[in-house]
């Protein structure tokens, strides 16, 4: 490397870092006002029962439409919301919003159709906030939903980091009757000891493994093993990121319980998802799926 280029790349590096720090500070500032200003919204992605092909429920995913920057990815703003503690208020808002939407959709289901559930992502920061159990209890009471209609998704990396800190709250939530899910399973550094202690009844396999189906025998082996292990522990499995019919068919053959992904539907606003539900219902009624 030529002399002097080190200094140059250092200059570029710090500039990039400064831009990044500035964007982050801007976003942090804007996020403080976003909830009040109605910039946050929720999109819903269907979760399918792979055994029957029927709709099982939805995952609620937060969206932020910044007035100047446009849509900001949750991968960028959720960590900021967590670091600043804003996730506690916005998470409570999302729970209320998603549960209210679910109660409405359940009331519109035709008689005899299996009741649908709502899956909501909960960050560790929310879990370690003393109010979470009360927030969940209140939401259930206000909406009249049975507790098992509400699934809470906790990422493996977050919770297992310090499981002892979260365990009491997790047990309280479970006593309420809500369904606990381990999200993004396989992406963290958790050991089987942690898995055994975590009172979850659902394991969600991260889509980085699902995308290897039909391509990478190692990914296939991992998915097959996670399904077998979860079933042996009495847990059910959701596969994320199903993008092709090949993914779906392979997962069905392995006995995977549920799936979600672009093959079925991307996350969409409630209004748009509603027509999908109706379509799916009539397809089902006429034996098309
Ligand atoms: P996640 O909980 O694992 O959510 C699944 C992500 O995969 C979503 O990204 C979804 O849009 C995307 N996805 C679904 N199906 C497919 C597919 O077939 N192919 C591909 N390529 N992607 C698919 P999204 O909405 O960008 O959310 C990213 C992450 O941000 C979520 O991962 C979750 O960890 C976090 N997040 C989103 N909303 C919330 C929230 O309200 N609270 C918290 N704490 N975290 C949230
Ligand atoms: Mg999730
Ligand atoms: Mg996930
Ligand atoms: Mg994931």
From TrEMBL:
Keyword Ligase: no
Domain of life: Bacteria
Residues annotated as domain EAL: 24-281
Keyword annotations: Membrane, Transmembrane, Transmembrane helix
UniProt keyword annotation of Transmembrane helix present: yes
Protein name, UniProt field: Uncharacterized protein
Organism this protein belongs to: Spirilliplanes yamanashiensis
């Amino acid at each position: 490397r030529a002399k002097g280029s080190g200094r140059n790349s250092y200059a570029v590096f710090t500039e990039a870092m400064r831009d990044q720090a500035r964007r982050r500070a801007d976003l942090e500032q804007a996020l403080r006002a976003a909830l009040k200003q109605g910039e946050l919204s929720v999109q819903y992605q269907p979760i399918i029962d792979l055994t029957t092909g029927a709709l099982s429920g939805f995952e609620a995913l937060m969206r932020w439409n910044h007035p100047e920057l446009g849509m900001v990815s949750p991968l960028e703003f959720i960590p900021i919301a967590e670091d600043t503690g804003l996730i506690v208020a916005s998470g409570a808002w999302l729970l209320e919003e998603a549960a209210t939407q679910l109660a409405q959709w359940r009331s519109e289901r035709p008689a005899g159709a299996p009741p649908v559930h709502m899956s909501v992502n909960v960050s560790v920061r929310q879990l370690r906030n003393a109010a979470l159990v009360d927030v969940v209890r209140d939401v259930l009471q206000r909406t009249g939903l049975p507790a098992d209609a509400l699934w809470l998704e906790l990422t493996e990396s977050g919770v297992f980091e310090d499981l002892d800190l979260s365990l009491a709250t997790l047990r309280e939530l479970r006593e309420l009757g809500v369904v606990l899910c381990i999200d993004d399973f396989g992406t963290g550094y958790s050991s089987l000891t942690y898995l055994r202690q975590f009172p979850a009844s659902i394991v969600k396999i991260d889509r980085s493994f699902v995308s290897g189906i039909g391509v990478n025998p190692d990914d296939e082996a991992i998915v097959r093993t996670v399904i077998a292990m979860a079933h042996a522990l009495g847990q059910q499995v959701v596969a994320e990121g199903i993008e092709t019919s090949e993914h779906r068919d392979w997962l069905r053959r392995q006995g995977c319980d549920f799936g979600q992904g672009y093959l079925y539907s991307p996350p969409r606003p409630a209004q748009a998802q509603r027509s999908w539900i109706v379509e799916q219902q009539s397809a089902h009624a006429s034996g098309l799926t």
